[in-house]
Amino acid sequence: MSGNPYQDGRGNKDASITNTKGIGTMTPAHRKSGPTTKVDGGPFLIGDTMTGGYGKGPDILHECTIAVNPGEIAVIVGPNGAGKSTAMKAVFGMLDVRSGSVRLDGEDITRLTPQDRVVKGMGFVPQTSNIFTSMTVEENLEMGAFIRRDDIRDTMEQVYDLFPILREKRYQAAGELSGGQRQQVAVGRALMTKPKVLMLDEPTAGVSPIVMDELFDRIIEVSRTGLPILMVEQNAKQALAIADKGYVLVQGRNAFTGTGKELLEDPEVRKSFLGG
Amino acid sequence: MTETVKNTALFLGVAALVVITGFMQSWNSAILIVNMGLISAIMAIGVNLQWGFAGLFNVGIMGFVALGGLAVVLVSEPISPEAWSAGGWGIVLALLLGAATVFAAVMATKRMPKGRSRTLTILVVLIAGFVIYRAVFDPNVMAVEAINPAAAGNIGGLGLPVLLAWPAGGLLAAGAAWLIGKTALGLRSDYLAIATLGIAEIIIAVMKNEDWLARGVKNVIGLPRPVPYEIDLQNDPGFVESAASLGLDPVTASTLYVKLGYSVLFTVVLLALLWMAQMALKSPWGRMMRAIRDNEVAAEAMGKDVTRRHLQVFVLGSAVCGIAGAMMTTLDGQLTPGTYQPLRFTFLIWVMVIVGGSGNNFGAVLGAMLIWFLWVQVEPLGLWLMNVITFGLPEGSALKSHLIDSAAHMRLLTMGIILLLVLRFSPRGLIPEK
Amino acid sequence: MDLLNAFVALSNFVLIPAIAYGSQLALGALGVTLIYGILRFSNFAHGDTMAFGAMITVLVTWWLQSMGIGLGPLPTALLALPFGILGCMVLVLVTDRMVYRFYREQKAKPVILVIVSMGVMFIMNGLVRFIIGPNDQNFADGERFLISARDFKKMTGLEEGLAIKSTQALTVVVAVICVALLFWFLNKTRTGKSMRAYSDNEDLALLSGINPERVVMYTWLIVAALATTAGVLYGLDKSFKPFVYFQLLLPIFASAIVGGLGSPLGAIAGGFVIAFSEVTVTYAWKKVLGYFAPAGMEPDGLVQLLSTDYKFAVSFVILLIVLLFKPTGLFKGKAV
Q1: pTM
Q2: Which chains touch B (3 or more CB pairs under 8 A)?
Q3: d(CA C284, CA C302)
Q4: Residue C330: is it exposed, middle or buried by C-beta count within 10 angstroms (0-12/13-18/19+)?
Q5: Residue C300 included in any domain
Q6: Cβ of A9 under 8 Å from any chain B Cβ?
Q7: For B206-225, what is the mean pLDDT?
Q8: Domain holding A110: CATH number?
Q9: Which of A143, A189, A198 should we substitute to test contact with C (largest number of C Cβ atoms within 10 Å)?
């Protein structure tokens, strides 16, 4: 039995009375946003010495620091269960950060809800369920721009220029697309808010190597526009190859930090994490 | 305050309510509340088995209760040889033909390869089967219903003692539950709620319309009783004497005696079922049931046949409801299909289980007794309340008479409010699951 | 000629009543399916929501009638309908605020919300009976027939008459307008799209800056409008009786599930499937078949497959068949 009696559905799976498809699973650290404060200096986006865990659970992150600047691609790699995705979720406000802070563009946003971080300029692409499968590609992009009240046509054109296949399939339901195309929709949706920083949680999970290379090309292309990109990757070698900055996490701590090239050449990193 | 003390206090509280009723109104109505409360408690145990132990959502309790009532007629009514010779066997034959048709269609669905020929075969089987069924069924039904329609017109019963009808009611309900469970459970997600909701309506429709079965809406009255008749007691000098020694007049004493007789019978059944439910809960079977409920994926990975377990518990719970239904019809002494309402026989039982504490058998019993007491007493209380509220209004004002007339509908309102309050502030119920 | 007569008889006794009833069921099922898609539970209180909205309309209709305000040939209830919708909107929003919202904040499991809706059902049921009583109420006025059977016979010279009650015509017209408006709203407007997005993927909708509370509020408003309209149309066509609305819950659920829960298109299709099967299976075909059979071979019986008392049973048999062969319903019950 779970602690909250309201969340105890007694294992009922009666589809004639309950609809669990697409139900919310997010557990934001804050339900209501707290105040933000101005801070000077530092990188454009930084999760600074973050320590924390989910809800009342134990700490998963220990003084973990992750930062990215405009024009850069920062990649978080590490073994399974190292807390890679957790670190990104902490930056996005899905994890209770008990000490340390998250700062974006000279503002301390540690106490904002994930939604308000989106408003502040964070674009986040979750690892799974990252598109509206029953809606068309174009509607997906429109929903990405939901918080904008200005004309979104230019941004949509830019996304279509970046991912031409999406223009072709704009009136098709996103759920009917292939894995790689879905990821493009997901990234395109996040770009529609005109974010100040783009965060990708394992964008290449479950796609073929060819599609993976193509996706990485597109990500570099996005980065060239000056948009800082923070990315968690399973495929450490390929990811570090395109990274300006790399973070190797082990058990929720920074194990190694450096440029992608440095890490690739570091014998210890190679031995422990890149398979020689 | 330990848990045992708290729970005992809760039960004593409900008992006190009944005693107060005895002193304020009459002991007859107090015992009537207890009797129906006991029956409700059995229904609540049945639903608790399904919802509390297995998370199965049954909203067709009414149907199983009604089947129990039907069993009383079929078991305890005198045998009617006339009806059987007129068309009883024909009806049985027709029903067997109908069952054979459905069986053949199911077999065709399972055995034949998918395609147009299968669809055609199924259609032909179903249509031909239906025509044959109706051709055999209709004349026989007419023949049976023509026999003394004012008083009978049905196939009668087996002429067995009425107490036998209680387990028979359980069996009948179990059979229906097995059929429903077989079709609605077992898919990746089930459709039990809508299936039970529908089947309950169908059962009631059958009982209302098939006059040959149990006289339909013409009702069967004067069912045999497991306890003596009041009039016999009043004519028994020994009984009158012992009543007088207690300072009671024979009429009151006889009604009390009869009602108390029922109370004893019901209490025995309730205690037996409660004991069995507790044993089941603590047995390896019950532990597995709860393991499945709390983490189906893990249980399945451990090789547990989840669908089978769900089917078992669904059939068991429905059988318990059927037993309760048979007991209720015995208490009433009549079967009146028109009185089965989902609000009273399905949703009210749900209120009992939720308020008492889903997953706890004692909670279900407490909830049933408490809610039944309120269901009965809210109406007089509401009337009294309305009289107080409208005290200042002039006699004969439209508002006043409307409010007083509407007091009868306070009961549904109150049940809803109680359910919502308990769900909100004490979601595990009065006696939570351990 | 016989063929024409048979067709007229069929239209009169089967097609027209089934179309009207199907429209009413479809409107009801749309409400159930929207709640299922967005709030993610089956609302047991839906029948009583319909009854409440219809009740307000009945009360306002009586008041308008007493003031001598009417719409001539159209029923006065049409004028009262907006008030009914408003009243129903207030009721569901207050209910959401006082009851459902708490469970959303708790991230309660949908099945808990189903039980909560049972409590709401009790309360609404009691409320309606408390205010207007449990009895039949008549509130239809205006022209009774668009075409009466006698006029039709005179017009066409056919043996069979065709009567179209004005309430039946009205039902279909209003239902078509409602459905068109709803689909336009869901597919073309920003708010409508955000509702579909929320139904499809709650987390992602949140990340896109869609406010769940607003989505839920719009859903309740639409559901209140649909429920009241369905309730009033049903009441005009048959009569207003609180208990009947509670019973309607069953065919409405059946319609929504047959069509595929969560799919508005499915809800409409399901409503008509259920209505047509109920009417055809319980209709006595003697008359229609009589026109086809050669002379002397007319059927003697009523040729009624099942007695009318089994009409609810029919919906569930259809439901069972659909679920056995297509567990997600006719329209694949995907998100709204």
Answers
A1: 0.93
A2: A, C
A3: 5
A4: middle
A5: no
A6: yes
A7: 91
A8: 3.40.50.300
A9: A143
